[in-house]
Design brief:
alpha/beta, seven-stranded mixed sheet, five-stranded antiparallel sheet, 12 strands, binds S-adenosylmethionine
Length: about 240
């Protein structure tokens, strides 16, 4: 990834260096013009600060772990401190540099679409911080889920967080769902880019799904929904279990 495209990574790295703290937000822009502002601090929080559904997700993790889109490594570092063997991957070079400087022992700069069995076999795949969204679109989700089945042990699990896009009354979101439907896209398939200072990612798709959509999506992929861990808001964690063959 070109350095000026690594907007998220710059925000994390500046926060780690203490230069960005509280000064510059991470701007998330949707293709209808809606903007939201995030704070890099959120990606450095400790277990005690996490919402209950993310804490609950940690109890579902077992064995050798692949943390996809690990960011500044908050979940990977927690699991590593508990003695688990964790590989953190992220397409952002500066996110991975941040993880390394924070003490994460096993890291790799890699996009979710580049993951393969050459990395070894995993018992848990972790996609927290709404990283189910990295599946981007339903067809890619099914393709990647099948690929993950080939990279994991029997009895493996995927612990993934997403947000139910329908738990909103915001007219801008409701209009966006309608626009997506008109274009044959799933309502929660958002097209966004991330800006930070003078850096910006290209536009990319990010997928939010309801529990029913998620159940539909995983059919015939080698995975089945074992359970959901709910939060008080629209976010939830899905535990997917590998189907015995
Ligand atoms: C919302 S952050 C979540 C970070 C971390 N999981 C957490 O909860 O603190 C999303 C992360 O995914 C990474 N990412 C975005 N697109 C990716 C892709 N295609 N493959 C791998 N990582 C990606 C970003 O660089 C970022 O670090």
């Amino acid at each position: 990834m070109n350095d000026d495209r690594d907007a998220f990574g710059h925000a994390l790295y500046d926060h780690l260096q203490g230069t960005g703290k509280g000064k510059w937000g991470i701007v998330i822009e949707r293709d209808d013009g809606l903007v939201d502002v995030d704070d890099a601090h959120n990606y450095f929080t400790e277990y005690a600060d996490w919402p209950a559904h993310q804490q609950g997700a940690m109890a579902l993790v077992q064995g050798r772990v692949l943390d996809i889109g690990c960011g500044a490594g908050r979940h990977s570092l927690y699991l590593q401190s508990k003695g688990l063997d964790v590989l953190g991957v992220d397409e952002s070079p500066l996110a991975i540099e941040t993880c390394k400087q924070r003490g994460l022992r096993r890291t790799q700069v890699m996009s979710i679409t580049q993951l393969s069995a050459t990395l070894g076999t995993f018992d848990t795949i972790l996609m927290l911080g709404n990283n189910f969204g990295l599946f981007a679109k339903p067809a890619r989700a099914r393709w990647l889920l099948r690929r993950f089945a080939a990279m994991t042990s029997p009895g493996a699990r995927i612990v993934a967080e997403t947000l139910d896009p329908y738990q909103t009354g915001d007219p801008l979101h409701l209009a966006y769902h309608q626009r997506n439907r008109r274009h044959g896209r799933w309502p929660g398939q958002v097209r966004i880019r991330v800006r930070y200072r003078d850096c910006g990612t290209p536009w990319f798709d990010y997928l939010f799904v309801s529990r029913d959509e998620l159940l539909q999506l995983v059919e015939h992929t080698g995975w089945a929904v074992d359970r959901f861990v709910d939060s008080e808001g629209p976010c939830y964690v899905a535990l997917l279990a590998k189907v015995d063959r």
